[in-house]
Design goal:
mainly alpha; single chain; 321 residues; 73% helix; 13 helices
Length: 321
């Protein structure tokens, strides 16, 4: 149990770092890494502590109380323990795969639960994609006029607040991916180990400056500007908070994030086409590459889930027939 948790905790945070703290890292390159770590780490501790107190030991904000995930595992198969290891490998290959699909699906006891997670995640992708095209198309022209020269120091404060809010909402959504290996209600010592392990894991991540997968954020247009990063974080936080309130069904925040970045990239490309900056083809290739990597993670998770759970295998065969 604790081995699975440790590997899942590291792999989940390392892969999903691009979503929430990726823009925070890239727009604060001149800040000390340990300052960024302490800030994000303390917010993490406060967020999960609130869930632990409010929901009687549950740190997932009841995401694991939904259909198909409410039963805590009493034993583990090899493939369930291998899933987070696959995630580490994909992370090292800089693939932004969904930790929700890869870690939660292999524990699901219901085909309907998996379909619910996939449906909610795909809905999140398209809403983020279309919404970001509209949002960034509307503000980009005005932002370029207003955001000239070096950003005022107050923007850094705003960006830290926005990043902190985004990180907290993300933890509410994705803590389930890490806690899936653990009892649904954690005792005091179990909770302390959970919190301390992730806290210091974040320290390693900040020391490595996001590690290899940080390139997914770095390669996007104008994302290093603290003002652009603030807008991305704010838009993303609003979407995640909306889906958090919609239902307790877990969802892939990775797909929402990729939809947001893809829509933003496309909006900026259309605006700049007259200036012959980044070609439309190049932007589409970036979007397609990110989605392709995410689909690989989805396919792997479904294969593992079917191999692990005979009931899911029967459901899948019936669906094909």
């Amino acid at each position: 149990m604790w081995f699975g948790f440790a590997v899942a905790g590291y792999s989940s945070v390392a892969n999903d770092s691009i979503q929430t703290i990726g823009t925070f890292i890239v727009s604060n390159k001149n800040s000390k890494w340990w300052k960024l770590w302490i800030y994000i780490g303390v917010i993490f501790l406060i967020t999960i502590s609130f869930s632990w107190f409010k929901y009687d030991g549950d740190v997932s904000y009841q995401r694991l109380m939904s259909e198909g995930f409410s039963e805590a595992p009493t034993s583990f198969t090899f493939l369930q323990l291998a899933a987070p290891i696959f995630l580490i490998i994909l992370t090292r290959l800089r693939m932004p795969v969904s930790t929700t699909f890869l870690l939660l699906n292999v524990f699901s006891t219901s085909g309907d639960a998996i379909i619910g997670v996939i449906s909610k995640s795909f809905t999140g992708y398209f809403i983020a994609f279309i919404g970001s095209i509209i949002f960034f198309s509307l503000i980009h022209r005005y932002a370029k006029k207003l955001f000239k020269g070096k950003a005022h120091g107050s923007w850094t404060i705003v960006q830290w607040i926005t990043s902190g809010f985004l990180w907290s909402v993300w933890v509410m959504q994705d803590a389930a991916n890490i806690a899936i290996f653990l009892p649904r209600s954690l005792g005091v010592f179990q909770f302390l180990f959970f919190a301390i392990f992730i806290f210091f894991g974040l320290g390693v991540l900040f020391y490595l400056k996001g590690d290899r997968i940080q390139k997914i954020v770095d390669e996007k247009t104008e994302i290093t500007d603290v003002r652009a990063a603030t807008l991305v974080d704010l838009f993303y936080a609003i979407i995640l908070y909306y889906f958090k309130e919609v239902s307790n069904i877990p969802m892939s925040t990775t797909w929402v994030f990729l939809g947001l970045l893809g829509g933003r990239e496309l909006a900026i490309t259309f605006i700049k086409r007259n200036h012959k900056n980044k070609p439309l083809k190049q932007s589409i290739l970036l979007i397609t590459k990110d989605v392709g990597y995410a689909l690989i993670g989805l396919i792997v998770s479904l294969v593992l889930a079917i191999l692990i759970n005979p009931l899911l295998k029967e459901d899948f065969l019936s669906l094909i027939k």
